[in-house]
Amino acid sequence: MQIQKIIGLLAVTLISIVKAHTVLLPAYGKRCFFETLSKGDELSISFQFGDRSPSSTDQLDGDFVIYGPNDEIVTELSETQHGDVTISAKNAGKHSYCFINERSSVDTKDVTFNIYGTIYVDLDNPETDTVDAAVRQLSKLVHDVKNEQSYIVIRERTHRNTAESTNSRVKYWSIFQLVVVIFNSLFQIYYLKRFFEVTSYV
């Protein structure tokens, strides 16, 4: 009987589907998605704004909004580079979430986001087994680790672009210095040669 409870709980936990997406945000535009939730369900979204341009060295930001079934704003983050938001549905229905780029003309900005939800289980109910709480907690920790890895990948991409840009500038500056040194050396040789040249007059 205990095994059946655990299997049932795992099935319920697996219903909370994990999705990882990367979408391109249009300049002065936004991208919206939705999830249909029942009352008491949890919806967690973690996201990170980035830049698809391989030459970009800036960490971009944007806005994030979650709307309830009646188009009321549930959560709003402005000019943020990344975020991790969890809401509990107060009403059943379609909950929309939007990534907004309306204040920026950058057309290579993208956003990577993960979505996972949890079907409501009342842990204060005396009939709820403590194994249920442990499985839910373990599932949440696994998702947190996965989201942190996605965040680190995007940060690494931005830092790598910065390092490559810096290396490129150092390379061209070194070439410029080398040309200046060679030119200066040739000028000095020519000048000293002229300075010590013996001129005879007849």
UniProtKB/TrEMBL annotation:
Q: Which SMART domains match?
A: EMP24_GP25L
Q: InterPro entries given for it?
A: Emp24-like, GOLD_dom, GOLD_dom_sf
Domain GOLD positions:
30-117
Q: How does it sit in the membrane?
A: Single-pass membrane protein; Single-pass type I membrane protein
The answer to keyword Transmembrane helix applying to this record is yes
Name where it's found. Answer: Endomembrane system; Membrane
User: Which GO cellular component term is one of those annotated?
Assistant: membrane
- Glycosyltransferase in keyword set: no
The name of this protein is: GOLD domain-containing protein
Task: Tell me the organism.
Answer: Hanseniaspora valbyensis NRRL Y-1626
Its taxonomic placement starts with: Eukaryota, Fungi, Dikarya, Ascomycota, Saccharomycotina
